[in-house]
Design brief:
Elements: E1 3-7, E2 13-17, H1 18-53, E3 55-67, E4 72-82, E5 85-92, E6 103-109, E7 112-118, H2 119-122, H3 129-151
Antiparallel strand pairs: 1-2, 3-4, 3-6, 4-5, 6-7
Helix pairs in contact: 1-3
Keywords: Membrane, Transmembrane, Transmembrane helix
Organism: Streptomyces enissocaesilis
Transmembrane segments: 20-41, 132-151
């Protein structure tokens, strides 16, 4: 096992093995992936609830809203969770944005009918990206533990 010598700003030389340098690199990846994983958890829980308990219904587009340039598009729509209640809600737009007055599918929560998401978003890869990031997080953690075991 070879060693490299790194000089820190204080002028002290440190001997760092190649494995230790690799381990530091893995931890540098681990921290941002961990933060990203935590950011996706609340959306994953919400989307999982919609998939398991949500009810799909038709919605009618009322107004298109563009926020942050053309990267994020939302539409205001109305849907009926039950015959006596009409809900006006903003949801993420399907990939082919519906025209004014056009129908598209939304999924709403029966326990809270005013909460809804676009069915196309809910069943797309976009809503499952958090799982991919969490998988990468676990993989990097496993590599870090393996490298730590090898170095020690």
């Amino acid at each position: 096992m070879s060693c490299r010598y790194l000089r820190n700003p204080g002028g002290v030389y440190l001997a760092v093995s190649d494995f230790s340098a690799l381990l530091v690199s893995v931890w540098i990846l681990y921290v941002p992936l961990g933060i990203a994983t935590l950011l996706f958890v609340s959306n994953q829980i919400r989307d999982r609830r919609f998939r398991s308990r949500g009810t799909e219904t038709g919605a009618v587009r009322k107004k298109r809203i563009r926020r942050g340039g053309n990267a994020v598009e939302n539409v205001n729509c109305t849907y009926r969770p039950n015959p006596r209640l009409e809900v006006y809600r903003m949801v993420s737009s399907p990939k082919r944005a519906p025209r004014l007055g056009e129908r598209f599918k939304v999924v709403f929560a029966p326990e809270k009918p005013t909460s809804a998401v676009s069915a196309q978003y809910l069943y797309s890869f976009e809503s499952r990206i958090g799982s991919v990031v969490q998988g990468a997080f676990v993989l990097v953690a496993a590599v870090a533990v393996l490298l730590h075991t090898v170095v020690s």
